[in-house]
Design goal:
With 57 residues, this protein is mostly helical. It is built from two helices and no strands. Helix 1 crosses helix 2. It comes from Pediococcus pentosaceus.
């Protein structure tokens, strides 16, 4: 199930809005590539946090 800015996994609720939106984008792309939700969510969060660290520089 693809996620949106208003409907996203509980594990993303404590992320900043910017990081959460990027995590949703990444996780949805992973779902499109065939990943299970159980893998797409943590990968999306991790990659979005790394993106945010580099994005601010």
């Amino acid at each position: 199930m693809p996620w949106t800015k208003k409907d996203y996994p509980e594990s993303m609720k404590n992320l900043s809005e910017t990081v959460r939106n990027k995590a949703i984008e990444i996780a949805n792309a992973l779902l499109d590539e065939g990943y299970d939700e159980d893998r797409a969510i943590p990968i999306g969060i991790s990659q979005a946090e790394k993106w945010a660290e580099n994005h601010d520089k």
